[in-house]
Amino acid sequence: MNSRQRRGVILLVLSALCAMGAFAGVLSVIRDVNSKVGPEVAAYRLKDDIAPYKELSADQFEKVEMPERWLSSTAVTDLSQIRGKIAVTQLEKGSLLQADMIVDRPALEAGQQEIAILIDASTGVAGKINPGSRVNIYATFEAEGDTGVDQSKVIVVNARVIDVGKLTALDPGQSTAERSRTATQAVPITFALGTADAQRVAYAESFAEHVRLALVAGGADSTVAPGDRTYTLDEDK
Length: 237
Fold this sequence. Notes:
Blueprint: H1 3-37, E1 40-46, E2 61-67, E3 85-87, E4 102-104, E5 113-120, H2 121-125, E6 134-141, E7 151-164, E8 168-169, E9 185-193, H3 195-207, E10 210-215, E11 230-231
């Protein structure tokens, strides 16, 4: 082997050693990155904005994989956690879902039942009534016969709202609350009521000219005296 061949062999050996060193360095960097990043887990990102107090469904979220150590302790990693939950605040598109963003949907208490009616969107809801709200329910009735007088009645005091549905266009010929002379849109509102109050609401929804809600301030005494539950225009004369 001449000197040129020996130099070639030496260069080949040095190149192989350098390649092995570089490979070892890359492996070291990868191991270091893996040790810092850690295993990945599923997280869920909002596809669109979600309004407060709206019930959540799986199709509102997209699954993303993220390093577990980068997620907060409140991050939702299993969509089964949203079952029966509602948004507690406005949820923004692209945000990662956190457990403190959601709460349980209001549930029925012993002796209560759900009853839903359509309420005029412009006069009865105004976007301020949400699940958990307390409301007084008013109904107005036309006079019976020529000698009667029109009346407004408080039919239920301190009713608890458990769901607010989507805005719905009204069709002629449906329930009385939908046949308002001015209403074109309504919102289905679901209440948790005892049997007697549920009957009052069902009656008013069928026979009243209008059914309206009055929001009760949090912590306020919503008791209505018996003498104040019925009003006629004659009382102001």
